[in-house]
Amino acid sequence: MSLEDKIRKILEDNGFPLSEEDALKFSTYLKELQRWNKVHNLTSITDEEGIIRRHFLDSLSLVKCFQDLKVEWRKRKIADAGSGAGFPGVPLKIYLKDFDLYLIEAVAKKCSFLEYLKAKLGLRWEVLCTRAEDINTKFHILVSRAMGELEDIYPILEKLSSEYIFVLKGKEIKKEWLEEFKFNLYEVNLKELPKSYILWKKLK
User: Fold this and answer.
1) Cβ atoms within 10 A of the Cβ of 65, count?
2) Any idea which fold 3-202 has?
3) Helix 3-13 and helix 20-40: axis angle, to 10°?
4) CB within 8 A of 4, min separation 6: which ones?
5) Distance, CA of 80 to CA of 143 (rounded, Å)
6) Minimal CA–CA distance to 89: which of 100, 194, 75, 6?
7) Which of 7, 69, 109, 127 has its Cβ near the most Cβ atoms within 10 Å?
8) Contact at 8 Å (CB) between 103 and 126?
9) H or E element, residue 3
10) Which residues does 169 contact at the CB level (< 8 Å), separation at least 6?
11) Distance (Å, rounded) from C-alpha 66 to C-alpha 18?
């Protein structure tokens, strides 16, 4: 089975049908991530299936969340804070397409990868190579997966967003996040992943 077919099968089995063009983009993304990772250590997950499931599929869980909550993402400015090697922002861009993406990342080697990847995939996004707390722009939707402890980053996330905040937090949820920061919980149930949660909040 080709890499493209493997990606299509895993994503389609979990409710994310892919065109041939999108499967090729995900395949290119995976290969480039592995290639760069040998030198730059962008991710600790390096095997094909791990990248497909724990990076691509996990990122796309936001699509289900948007759909179920009836979040309007088309034509919106979506920022990915602490994007790292592009998760969850780049998989969302490949799959959803019709929004403006901003990748916020402070580590120079990761910014270089994101700039290179943009050209390689023929997609458009803006890499903001700086710390999230130094940005004064607001975005309609703010997503984040691996930026740090929620207690530390919440004021930054709220400052950057005008409509929604979504934080992918895996399966460990603290009660105070819901009580103190007034987040709601969205439960992610995908065939290929353990049950996990997305914290979300509508700001207006």
Assistant:
1) 19
2) Rossmann fold (3.40.50)
3) 110
4) 20, 23, 24, 26, 27
5) 5
6) 100
7) 7
8) yes
9) helix 3-13
10) 150, 177, 196, 197, 198, 199
11) 18
pLDDT band, very low/low/confident/very high, at 96 (cuts 50, 70, 90): very high
Residue of 147 and 32 predicted with greater confidence: 32
Residue pLDDT, tens place only, 116-138 = 999 999 999 999 999 999 999 99
pLDDT band at 171 (very low <50, low <70, confident <90, very high): confident
By CB neighbour count within 10 A (0-12 exposed, 13-18 middle, 19+ buried), where does 78 fall? buried
Structure tokens at 20: 């041939």
Do the bridges between strand 196-202 and strand 139-144 make them parallel or antiparallel, or are there none, so unpaired? unpaired
> What is the C-alpha R_g of the chain?
16
Is the whole model's pTM more than 0.90, yes or no? yes
Tell me the domain boundaries of the chain: 3-202
